[in-house]
Write a structure and sequence with these properties.
Layout (H helix, E strand, L loop, with lengths): L1 E5 L6 H12 L3 E5 L4 E4 L6 E4 L2 E2 L5 E4 L6 H13 L3 E2 L3 H8 L1 H10 L7 E2 L7 H7 L5 E5 L8 E4 L2 H13 L4 E5 L7 E8 L2 E9 L15 E4 L4 H14 L3 E9 L2 E8 L5 H7 L3 H23 L1
Parallel strand pairs: 1-2, 1-6, 6-7
Antiparallel strand pairs: 3-4, 4-5, 8-11, 9-10, 9-11, 12-13, 12-15, 13-14, 15-16
Helix pairs in contact: 1-9, 2-3
Amino acid sequence: MNIAILSRRADLYSTRRLVEAATARGHKADVIDTLRCYMNITSNRPSIHYRGKELPAYDGVIPRIGASVTFYGAAVVRQLEMMHVFCVNGSTAITRARDKLRSLQLLSRKGIGLPITGFAHSLDEIKNLIEMVGGPPLVIKFLEGTQGIGVILVETAKAARSMIEAFLGLKVNILVQEYIREAGGADIRCFVVGKEVVATMRRQAKSPEEFRSNLHRGGSASTEEITPEERTMAIRAARIIGLHVAGVDIVRSNRGPLVIEVNASPGLEGIEKATGIDVAGKIIGFVEKSLAPARKHTRAQG
């Protein structure tokens, strides 16, 4: 198979591992810089050009779209979909996952357990908003933050009011969410590929003062067994958003597991090193399985 990996840099761990896994299975893998692609949008023959040439025909594409390039990256994936190229994660699913509010609303509608979350526009409703999520301490999240950036723990009602007023005054869209104290600064990353959880790890904040467990914020990772309920929840959450490859983050609360985020472009380094599982190989295996019927049909026609 000819596989394209949409990524800004070939030397990133996740990108490099996907190339290695594809090559080890006998496939050709090209790394395509998403922002260097440019599109010919036409009714008859839509195409994508790259570095002065039209992109060759690929059997499948693995999008590694960073949060900062979501809009353009989703447009590139959408163009590939118009060209009938199989994309591991589709453009609609990527944009759903990147919009925290939209993804939480979709999960809520399907009954997925979530932390109590508030969203408001008017400064007049701040007091009620804080009370609605259970009061302080509470968490404020930017709608488009990643890797723990734009996630703030607020300890008092006064500080919460001041911070929410400041962000709303600056026209910054935020969520206000209950703080799950009993989680102890830990969450569970479930790596979903297709219809199964292929690897799981526990992420722990680096200190009692730091509640964010993201590895980019200094958190540590270790292997973790999950319950059947957590496994089912992770798979359902990815499916609801429409993702075939996803990192589903779960916290354990006194009322059961709660999904805090569904990531459309989860990193491979932390989970592969923590678990020893070849997650990149699992992704390439999913591409093979997804394309097998089409390849079989092509051989039969030949």
